[in-house]
Write a structure and sequence with these properties.
about 260 residues, mainly alpha, single chain
Length: about 260
């Protein structure tokens, strides 16, 4: 248990990023994540919003309790009461600490925008966050507190996104797109300020840290201006592509329904 939780540092050699252990572990989590979301979402797809929202509310509470507990534990393990500064909800996956409660417990256009945001970025965090976390799997053994807790957090984020999709909770209204961008730019701005003042590397706006972001970091030779702009630009591009694909699928479904009728 001492070795699993990393007290005194891990003694085992990390299996490494994209090792078979890493891939098997996150693939198992991904299968569970998608299957559970599909089962619960499709079961409630034709229910009222209140019934659908119960699952999301439980998910938001579980995520926040686990994430806050993880932060408290890391501060205790590392014997540094200020370690929480390195665990602020300013990564795409940990934004769910705020985004999921907003999606579950707010109302009106704010809830619609929060649902859309959790839908769009939760899927990215759940998949890319598990498979692309080179900074974790190169540093810690696969079966360790740091990687297991990271996988659970990413998987819950992904579960929420897929559940929203299967349950039909995403509105994806064009009039709310600007709210999605405001949420994104707000978090990016806060992350950049935190990176400068702490300093740290929230949203990977300062460097790639062994993740796929290293590709773009190297392309711009680590430029402190071009690199963060590139990362934010990728987020914007992702939103645009996501909305485009979503509306293409929706139009095809509507066309098929019209043909049948």
């Amino acid at each position: 248990m001492k070795e699993f939780f990393g007290f005194g540092g891990y003694q085992r050699t990390p299996e490494g990023f994209l090792s078979w252990q890493h891939l098997v572990f996150v693939s198992a989590a991904t299968v569970i994540m998608i299957c559970l979301a599909a089962y619960l979402g499709l079961k409630r797809r034709h229910s009222d919003h209140k019934t659908k929202n119960k699952v999301l509310a439980v998910t938001a509470i579980v995520f926040d309790v686990l994430e806050i507990s993880r932060i408290v534990f890391l501060c205790f393990r590392n014997e540094n009461p200020w370690d929480w500064l390195h665990n602020l909800p300013l990564f795409l996956c940990t934004i769910s600490l705020i985004a999921l409660p907003l999606a579950a417990f707010s109302s009106g256009r704010l809830q619609e925008a929060a649902l859309d945001f959790a839908f769009i970025f939760g899927m990215l965090g759940g998949i890319l966050g598990n498979y692309g976390a080179g900074q974790n799997y190169n540093a810690y053994p696969v079966i360790s507190f740091d990687n297991v807790s990271s996988c659970i957090m990413h998987s819950i984020t992904g579960f929420a996104s897929f559940y929203i999709a299967f349950a039909g909770m995403a509105s994806m209204k064009k009039k709310n797109i600007w709210l999605t961008f405001c949420i994104l730019f707000g978090f990016c701005g806060a992350a950049y300020i935190a990176n400068i003042t702490i300093p740290y590397n929230y949203m990977f706006l300062m460097r790639g840290d062994g993740t796929p972001y290293d590709i773009f970091y190297n392309l711009v030779n680590g430029s402190p201006v071009l690199y963060p702009l590139t990362v934010v630009g990728l987020f914007v591009l992702y939103i645009v592509v996501f909305y485009t694909v979503f509306y293409m699928i929706r139009k095809r479904k509507e066309k098929r329904q019209n043909e049948k009728s």
